[in-house]
Amino acid sequence: MKISSIECHVLLDPGCDIGATSSAQDDIVVEIHTDEGLTGIGETDVNPWIAAACIEAPGTHTMGLGLKEMLIGADPLDVEALWERMYVGTAMNGRRGAVIHAIGALDMALHDLRAKAAGKPCYEFLGGAARDSIIPYASLQPEVGSFEEYRESLVAWARKARALGFKAAKAEVTPCGPYAHKGLRATHHQMTGVIRDVRDAVGMDFTLMVDVQYAFPDADTCLSAIREWREFDLFFVETPLPSDDLAGYYRVATEQPIPIAAGEWLATRFEFLDLMDRGKVQVAQPDIGRVGGLTEAKRVCDLAKIRGLTIVPHLWKTAISIAAAAHLAAATPHCAFIEFLPAELCESGLRKELATANLEMKDGKLSLPAGPGLGVTLNREAMARFEEEASRRWATNRSFSGSAKPA
């Protein structure tokens, strides 16, 4: 079997709003086709036009090869070797950032393809089942324009998550910092009030996590705020500081009792080694697409296990990433939860409509993924609509920043 072609689908939600800091509004889906008629699918969380360029750009020398060019004609079943080929072949242009994120989409598709060829679920190639079920948590991020609306919406969503059968949820409490939605601005004291309201809404027998999305500029500011949160019995506080502030992470992780989680932006196991060994986080959060795909995410999980750390994969895209996270969790005994984004708790039409995964929640748990590959079905009609919207935006120069399309 050989790889015969690779398609990149750049997608955009027609309701895309630059004021909403959410990458659920766009996507890139890659399809890897073989000469035997099998296709693997993957996605990643990065500007989709950038990812497509990383994949489709031709190579110019031996350390700056094109990702697509390296894969055409290759054996798609040799997944881990292809990861190394792509990593080394793009080392001068890549090693981190968008190139690794693009490799993540391709690697995810290769895992899907290999498992389909064998008629097995992907987790069988990640070490086999290490558990009987997976615990999902609901990720709650309203997109509204005032602090009071945000607080009320977050509390309402938390109640709805519990009513839907979730045993855990993550409140995205981001009314300040770089992820503040639609111009929201609030004090750290007001953040404490929101968390208290959410905790009161779900009760103390419900697992609650909080994501502040880089809200604090430094460790001192962070510590002064989150020391108030001990009473809320939080499973973790996610990304309190900028990703590169490893010394700050060390202080925040060691100078107060709430576990600290981070890693959503990181590319490759090498960045996670810094976060775990220098930053001393207690929960590692590889985003499967961004970190470099299932191959690299599994390596991060193995490194976390050696260090006695918990894994909770990050994801913020569609059912494709949800399925990939479920397979990773199935093979990872120290994975406590996966992020789960049901349609009832989503704003994004793209996320709701693009794909479905063969996962059903019962009594707050997901059974292990069934069927070959990732077990994902694409809605081709929806994908065509989102692809058309992306093409329209590009053709009319209606970029998010207002800048002109490059020549």
Provide an overview of this structure:
This protein is α/β, with parallel strands linked by helices and 407 residues long. It folds into 2 domains: 3-119 and 380-395, Enolase-like, N-terminal domain (Enolase-like, domain 1, 2-Layer Sandwich), CATH 3.30.390; 124-378, TIM Barrel. It has helices at residues 48-56, 67-71, 79-89, 97-118, 147-163, 188-202, 219-226, 246-254, 268-277, 288-291, 294-306, 319-330, 349-353, 380-395, and strands spanning 3-12, 26-34, 39-44, 133-134, 136-140, 168-172, 207-211, 234-238, 260-262, 283-284, 310-311, 338-340, 355-357, 361-362, 365-367, 376-378. An 8-stranded parallel β-sheet has the order 11-10-9-8-7-6-5-12. A 3-stranded antiparallel β-sheet has the order 1-2-3. The chain has a 3-stranded antiparallel β-sheet with strand order 4-15-14, covered by helices on one side. A hairpin with a 2-residue loop joins strand 14 (361-362) and strand 15. Helix 9 (268-277) packs parallel to helix 11 (294-306). It is globular and about 60 Å long.
